[in-house]
Amino acid sequence: MMSTTAHAPTTTALSGAEVLMRALIEQGVEVIFGYPGGAVLPIYDALFKQSHIRHILVRHEQAAVHAAEAYARSTGKVGVVLVTSGPGATNAVTGLLDAMMDSIPLVCLSGQVPTALIGNDAFQEADTTGITRPVTKYNYLVRRPEDLAPAVHEAFAIARSGRPGPVLVDLPKNITVGDAPYIGAQDIRPRTTKVRTQPEREAVARAVAAMKGAKRPLFYTGGGIINAGPQASEALRRLVDMTGFPVTSTLMGLGAFPGTDKRFLGMLGMHGTYEANLATHGCDVLIALGSRFDDRVTGRVNAFSPGSFKIHVDIDPSQINKIVHVDEGIVGDVGAVIDMMIEEWEHQPAATHEADLAAWWAQIEGWRALDCLRFTQDGAADAIIKPQQAISRIYELARETRRETYVSTEVGQHQMWAAQFFRFDSPNRWLTSGGLGTMGYGLPAAVGAQVAHPDALVMDIAGEASTLMNIQELGTIAQYRLPVKIFIINNHYMGMVRQWQELLHGSRYSESYSDALPDFVKLAESFHARGLRVTRLDELDNTIRQALAHDGPVMVDICVAEGENCFPMIPSGAAHNEMILGPEQESSGAEVSTEGRMLV
Amino acid sequence: MQQEISGSAVISLLVDNESGALARIVELFSGRGYNIQSLTVAPVDEQGTTSRVNIVTTGTPSAIGQVKVQIERLVPVSRVVNLSDAGPYVAREMALVKVVSSGESRTEALRIAEAFRARAVDTTATSFVFELTGSSDKLDSFIDLMRPLGLAEVSRTGVASICRGPKTIQNF
Ligand SMILES: Cc1ncc(C[n+]2csc(CCOP(=O)(O)OP(=O)(O)O)c2C)c(N)n1
Ligand SMILES: [Mg+2]
């Protein structure tokens, strides 16, 4: 346990549940996403009796976690979840792993059977700390009343410090019912001191020296910059202004650098742009800022950015040299590192490779001229809508509203197209499940974002298959009158699965057809939302405008072409310069190696 | 990249003595595909709130480097040292070895035990239990020698280790 520096419990007897409320309030919690049950009834009672914290009742515990993730990612605060014991806790597991993979700060409070019954297979007992140990940054089973408040305070400190992540606190019912001492946050010393935030000056100086000597430099930025806060994104913009280097981003990093800026090459990796991937392949100095060389980014690791001098900045030392050997590893808060890079850049002698940099940019512009995201939309009024057309129009028309906009996605082709076509100019606006790729993330994420930003435009770009995985959240949306705009890119297929089957499995579409779909319009209406459907090109813009203008929740069923594939694509096991650009290049998967076929 | 050679390493760590702490460490190894050859754990401070864990693992130097930084991420772990990488150290293990035999084998077993300075901690007309402390290699060879002489059962503690000289795990 963490050490407490003072043992001055307040004299008025509080129940454990009341102590919990007090600790949450002290931690600045404003919203909890949760679902009640027997083991957490005392906590719900304490919630009822206070007025500082708002509770959002979801319709499934997995959704509570995704909503809290989006709340956290769109505000920079810690998301809070409350679930009951047993099935409540096990339902939360997918969300916890999702938060773990994408480094989202969360505190999940779970009910537990009384300590005396633990181990007896009591009703709704689960070994919650055992089950969630691998999917949390840390977890607790609170066995003694005096450990309750310190555990809650430490949980918040751990969730937000260093590389953020989910922390679970399991609360036996006797602990929440019985008396417990309140111990304030200032009276505990949380065990988070191992995190190094300030980088080593010499390492940063060496990195900047390499950047000064670069002929073909590239910034490869990731979700770490978003986690480091808006000031880190600001610092990145300044660093790019000073250096004039091109920038590519991971899926999780979108928005850290403005998507509409000319120096932004788009996303890299499996469905990244031609220019971003070729720049990654051909650069001579690669500066990874808060990114982790995920396999969706690297493709075949031994062919990833061959020949570049690699600089890797991460707050988590275990990420450095984990997948790709780097030449300069810098441990620290990426915002602090960028600030120091700026100082060093000003301080060190001017770069001498202006001409080389210009030539590098010329090469990049050549790649960019290929316009790798282009698609052909039949212009006839009654033409079938291409999914790319739908998504790019949603983007354009939403931009025209000039509203503060948050975008969540489900998982699949529509997610990748959204990543390609939406250009985020601010951090914290893009909410997607990157590391885990969790279908069912988008709808609850839209709930969380709208709760956090009641006046903003919140959109969920969804697939017809994914959205059914947490469709019950339409109930939450109705209850709290959350005006989210759900755009279902309905291609009647688990499109990403279908695409892999086409490219790697001889077009045998085994179980990937979305059969027996509901009527999404009626479904929306049955949940008191507006339902719209569009099937022809000439009605697309109007339908999107109508949805955006509606002041309540809307679900739009956009019926799109079924067989479209998402390009560019680096086939699994291939290198960045072996990208497939479009249908003309796609073959029966002959060029995918056996090893490639084994990759996920 | 050059092919790295796999070897074994002794990792020592200090961990808060709380429920689930050992599970956290062990699951990290199984979850990430690292190998545990032996593991020892016991409280080592006055109040019994801190335990020391010694793990013998095998892998390439970079895999072992990963093991160390991954363990460092665990909240209740306060210190991690790869002793094999940090200068000279002592690593000792204890074994209880049961030999059931008679006649010449029995005298031979006793003779070898003497040469290894193993103590007979239990003796019956047909059996011995030897207690032997030393490096894992020494224990291995003792057990190998006992095999043809009626080796019946082995119980080993796993390795306890500490660095040589005045430096402690706290100074790394
Ligand atoms: C929970 C879960 N189950 C399975 C998958 C595997 N998977 C990835 S994309 C996908 C298809 C998604 O279909 P849809 O939502 O219609 O999106 P589309 O690709 O058609 O745009 C599937 C099944 C997953 N990512 N998550
Ligand atoms: Mg689909």
Short précis:
The complex is a heterodimer of chains A (600) and B (172). By secondary structure, chain A is of the alpha/beta class.
Describe this structure in words.
The complex is a heterodimer of chains A (600) and B (172). Chain A has 600 residues and is of the alpha/beta class. Chain A has three domains: 3-189, Rossmann fold (3-Layer(aba) Sandwich); 201-368, 3-Layer(aba) Sandwich (Rossmann fold); 387-559, Rossmann fold, CATH 3.40.50.970. Helices cover 37% and strands 16% of the residues of chain A. Chain A is built from 24 helices and 22 strands. In chain A, the strands form five sheets. A six-stranded parallel sheet of chain A has the order 4-3-5-6-8-7, with helices on both faces. Chain A has a six-stranded parallel sheet with strand order 13-12-11-14-15-16, sandwiched between helices. Chain A starts with a strand and ends with a helix. With 172 residues, chain B is an alpha+beta fold. In chain B, 27% of the residues lie in helices and 39% in strands. Chain B has four helices and nine strands; from the N terminus they run E-H-E-E-H-E-E-H-E-E-H-E-E. Chain B has helices at 21-31, 61-72, 103-115, 136-146; strands at residues 7-16, 38-43, 50-59, 77-82, 89-100, 119-123, 127-134, 151-156, 160-163. In chain B, strands 5, 6, 7, 8 and 9 form a five-stranded antiparallel sheet that branches. Chain B has a four-stranded antiparallel sheet with strand order 2-3-1-4, with helices on one face. In chain B, strand 6 (119-123) and strand 7 form a beta hairpin. The longest helix of chain B has 13 residues, at 103-115. Chain B is elongated. The two termini of chain B are 30 Å apart. The interface between A and B is medium-sized, with 22 and 19 residues. The structure holds thiamine diphosphate (TPP) and magnesium ion.
